[in-house]
Amino acid sequence: MISYYYAGFELGLYLFLGSTIQLEALKLTTASKAAFIVQTTSVLVPTIEAILGRFPFKKILPSVVLASIGIILFSVDDPKSLGALDPSQLNLGDSLALFAAVFYSLHVIRLGSLSSKLRDTFRLARAKTICQLCIASVYATLALTSTDGIGEYLDNVTFNDLQASALILVWLGAVTTAYPQWAQTRGQMSVPPSVASILYSTQPVWSSITAFVVLSEQLPLKDIIAGVAIISASLLAI
């Protein structure tokens, strides 16, 4: 029988590799291109599932197409520029973003399998978070000790910096990490990975709605169309 910490290590490793490679990609390519490439998980997951014979691709093909259209519209500033895109011009940053998408896709697929075998979602989410934290801590320690990063930070840190960092950590830890880890693990007990990947593609929709409500940002017509396409894809997939 698979232990919770074995499963947690595997899932945590996928997330760590995905997020770390994505950060490296952002150094070498634009944020919009990286975001678009990483969101291809909504296509990669159903494709991998179909190749493995776990999910009929035809069943979810309309949702994949709609989600892809929505992601493209969200990711480009000028839809007319799509005709000028040349896959042969992908740089190292774009390639790294694609590798990150592969690891995120593996996480979604394996989570669907492991969460159905290990029924205690809280224990699995906790194991995944602890393992991911341990892996990230080792990596961060090695990265900082190999440079003057720690000394430089401590020389310039202020009380206000520490206070702001504490609030950010509470928000990121509780709202954007702890709850999603549990909710994703619980949800994928009954939702197939291919369907889950389509639902996850609604992320830019919620980001735009939050920016509109909290920051009073205006939504261009293409973003509204993109949101409708992604929501329609999600409804078809359910």
UniProtKB/TrEMBL annotation:
Record membrane topology: Multi-pass membrane protein
Localisation: Cell membrane
Predominant location category: membrane
Signal sequence range: none
Keywords, comma-separated and alphabetical: Cell membrane, Membrane, Transmembrane, Transmembrane helix
GO CC, one annotated term: plasma membrane
Domain of life: Eukaryota
Start and end residues of each EamA domain: 93-236
TM helices/strands, residue ranges: 60-76, 96-113
Protein name: EamA domain-containing protein
The species this protein was found in: Rhodosorus marinus
